[in-house]
Structure formats: structure tokens, C-alpha cells
Fold these 3 entries.
Entry 1:
Amino acid sequence: GLILTQLVRPGVPVRLMAYPSIMDQKYGCFTFACPEKVLMAAAMAQMFRYYGVPHAIHGATTRANVMDAQAGYETGIFDMFTALSGGELIIESTSSALEDTVLSAYEQAVIGNEICDMIYRILRGIDVNPETLAVDVIKEAGPGGEYLTHRHTMEHFRLENWDARLSNRMARDEWVENGAQDIRVKARKEVKRILDTHHPKPLDADVQRQLQQIVEEAEG
């Protein structure tokens, strides 16, 4: 496809995409949700980078039929290792899909967003510079000192500490007092909040006209 595109119109912008999968030998069905998919996607990302081609690779997916532990560990593991493979763009990283894209659940997309936010923090790594080393703060606090109330902590902890929006961090007693909600319940509430409060504005009329013109020119 890439070669044919460049032969027809040399220099036209392209983006290659990789959707590797396997066939399950036991059940005779295809699946994206497998370690082999991650390995093939990583290999494709390396090839795309070698050839200098803009690209995207497939990220999270699950063969689970419901939002259960399988859906969580498959999407989390596959997103993490796909991100580590160095692809330019990960497709469906916050996918709402279940059953290998046969089903879709808003709650699964919200949970996927939490997973991706966590992965993004990991990929950001640790900045090592005079500001983050804070040697002056260490000297100021001294042996036996504390950093919790220091201005440096106040200025940095929100940037460095990942904020868990859905994941539980409460002790069991507090969690029970707050209704003992698992992540599916909290995801459902977040979906409702988004649907109730998010009202995207339509595109400007001028932008719509320009888009329509592009479509008409392409079809003509």
C-alpha cells in the first residue's frame, strides 16, 4: 500500500498502521488479546522507525466478554508494552471494546483512560536536575527534619505524584464506609457525569463549509 501510494502520488503524506493478531488454535477464532500481538506490534514499530515512516500501532484490547479482571489485566499489560515499544501513535489505547471489538462499553473506555494516564506517568520518567534534586532543601531540613510542609513539596507533589481518579487507595474501613464501590461502579458514575456535563460545541459554520468543500473535491 505504501509503495503503491507513492507511485501514484510521490511524496503524499501517509501513516502506516499495524493491527497484528493471531488465530486461537483451540477455538478457531482470531484475537488481538495475546502476547504475540504485542511482540508483532513492537517489531512493526521498529521497522517503521527504521524506514522513517509515520506510523500507528494497535494498543489495548481484550477477549473478555464482560468488564472483569481479564479485561483489566489484558488492556493494562498490552497498553503498557505497546507504549514501551516506541510507536508514534497507539490506536485504541483507551478502547471501550470488549470481546475483541465485538462489544463496546463506555465504562471500559473510562477505565482505559485511567490505565493510559498511569502509563503516561511511567513513560514521563524521573527528571534529574538541580530543582528536582533539591540539595538546598535537604540541607535546610537537616537530619531529622521533614519535607511534608516545605514549599518545595507543595510546588512539586501534584506534578510528580499520579492522581488516582478511579483506582482505590482507601484503607478497607474507609472504603466500606464509602459504600465499598469497585472500579466498575465508579466508572459507571464517571460515565454518567461526563454525559451529563460534557456538551461539545458544534464546529463553526465556516469550518463546516470548508470540510464539505474538501469532501466534494475528493468525491469529484
Note: The chain has two domains: 2-124, 126-163.
Entry 2:
Amino acid sequence: MIGGAIGMTISIFIAKAGIGLSKETETNTEKTVEKLPFKTVLAAMAPTLILIAILIVTRIQQLGIKGLLNDATPLFNLHLGFANLNISQALIIKLSDVFGTNASWAYKTLYVPALIPFFVVVLISIPLLKMSSAQSKQVVTETLSRIKMPFIALVGALIMVKFMMIGGDHSPIITTGKAFSELTGKNWQFFASYLGALGAFFSGSATVSNLTFGGIQQTIAHTVGLPQDMILAMQSVGGAMGNMVCINNIIAVSTILGIANKEGFIIKRTVIPMVIYGIIAAVVSLFI
């Protein structure tokens, strides 16, 4: 979160310097850009700053709020026939023993960012930005129209992710990871980050990638005689890399920007810096 904020700040200064931006073919010398007052800029950035602040406060374990939002103490239980429904004091909704199997599903209502902080920040932003009821209604209408079709694609992508992760040690994603490691042997450190990227590509989460492949990375490091801490660090780097090509993230961002049917086009271009990122990480690992 902090890294993203720092990266955004650096990107702003780089963009102001014109680095990485296409040059305009025609320059209108008569066009002047009005300098906005600092208060106006601050008000425009306020929702983002509030969002970052709430995320930091709710994600740092030592502050105690994270524990409250993840409290699994049972509050309500109900047998639905096909599964057991459990609701905790932190409003964690869980289905267990689905169809008499070990399959389960849980949703952390207060911890998942959908409600806190995103919905909370939306409610704060309406009076903060002095939006009228008509403007608020227009924003909601446009947002719903944008997410309608991507929502269907995103649900399909998430179902595919779950299928790829079903099967425990014999799941498709685990089998793929083991096959990669057997091919590389002692040279695994040059490819460890890409396994982490594979996990994030399918799941859309660096955390899930680390949970899925962390044990495998540790086993591979022990088997081929490489430092475990270094390989696990490469796994974490890979988890971050994978978000660059994760279809879930690309669909979500495309929805926000109003871009339709460009997922393949975007992945073809983001995969290049991801590969370069992995090469840089591998080179750096040689000196650690």
C-alpha cells in the first residue's frame, strides 16, 4: 500500500518531466493551463488519501483493528441442508461441509476492502466533494453500467482460478510448479519469481500465491541446496510480478477506465515488463 503510494508519487514527477509519454505532433501555443489552488488539489486527492489511511490502519496487526475485523468467534449457526452456515462476530460468512465434503467457503465482510474502506470512503466523499443528489445518482448509474459486463467475465475468471487450485498436491497449478522446478534444478533461483508470478496470475493475489507456492519453493530450495530465505523472497517478488498480468486485475482496471475487450491486448504488453522485472530480480539475487 505504501509502496503503491510512493510509486504513484514518483510516476507523477516522471510524467511531469515528459519521460515515457508520447510527444504531441501539434502544439497549441495559445493554450494555457490554469494552475489549480492547493486546496482544490488536496480536496480531489482526499478520497485516495483517506482510502490509503484506512487500509494502513486496518492492515497493521499491532493496532488491534485487524484482529477485530477477523474475529472468528461464532455469532450465528444454521444448517442449510447442503452446508453449514456460520456467521462470526466480525460478520465473517462461512459455508462448511458443503455437500458433506471438506469443501468450504468464507467471506470476511468487514475485512475485504469492498465495505471497508471503499464503501465507507464513497459515503465520506459525497459531502466532502459537495456532490448533489443528482451527481451522486449519475455516478452510481455510470458505475453500474460499466461493471455489468466485466462482472460476468470476472466471475468466470474466478471460477477458473478455483478449478486450477482444486486437488491439493495434485492440483493443476501445483503440478505445473513442480514440473518447472524439475526442469531447472540448481538454476531454480533464476525462475523462482516466475512461479510466484504464475500463482498471482491465476489467483490475483500475492498472498494466495505465497500460500500456494511457499511450501513448494521451500522444498525445492532444500532439495537443490539453495538458500531458503532467498528463494522465498523471490517467491514474494514473483507474487507482485504476477499482478501485472492477472486477468482479474486487468478486467477490474479496464472497467474503471471504460476499456472494453482489450484484455488480451493489455496482457501482451504487460507480460514484457514482467519478464524484465523477473530478470532483474534474478540478477539481484546473485549478490544477496
Note: The two ends are 25 Å apart (CA to CA).
Entry 3:
Amino acid sequence: MSYETVDRALGCEGLLPTTKLVLAMTAKFRNTKTGKCHPSQATLARACGISVSTLNRHLRVLEQRGLIKRKRRYNVRTGATLSTQYSFPDQPVSTRAEHET
């Protein structure tokens, strides 16, 4: 778990409580030894007590704010979609993404 990320989530102004929860729960799944974080959307949604579509709305906000980065992963042999990999940038981007059209 990344306590720094959780602290950042809780102290981030302008985020809805559910968005903060999504960030904190995503950080909970981060392996502190490897830095890897790739829970499935179903697992993450279940941990937050929300639907996958609601989860994706909150993940979009977190990505726009620069609090997370998402990278789609695929099986190189079969091309099958794997769970998304999440990373946590050191410095959040300003809130300019919320105001872009």
C-alpha cells in the first residue's frame, strides 16, 4: 500500500469522497516492493462498493487530475486484454484538465 498516495487523496481538495476512496483503494493494491498495481476493475469496484461504470468515471477524474496513470495491458501471445496497470505520479498535475473541453 502507498500511504503517501492515500494521504494525498485524503488531502486533495475538490475531489468527491468516492473519488478519494477509489484512489485510496487503488493505492491499497500497489505492491510496495515492485511498485506494480494492477487489480481488475471488478476487484477494485467491489472493494469500493460501487459499479464498474462508476469506478471508471472516478478513475477518469483521477487521471485528469494527474493523480494516477492507467496503462492497458495485453497478453502478447493471445492479444487478450489483461487488467489495467495503475501508477501514481510523484507530483499531481494542476486541475487544468477539469477545465479543458
Note: The chain has five helices and two strands.
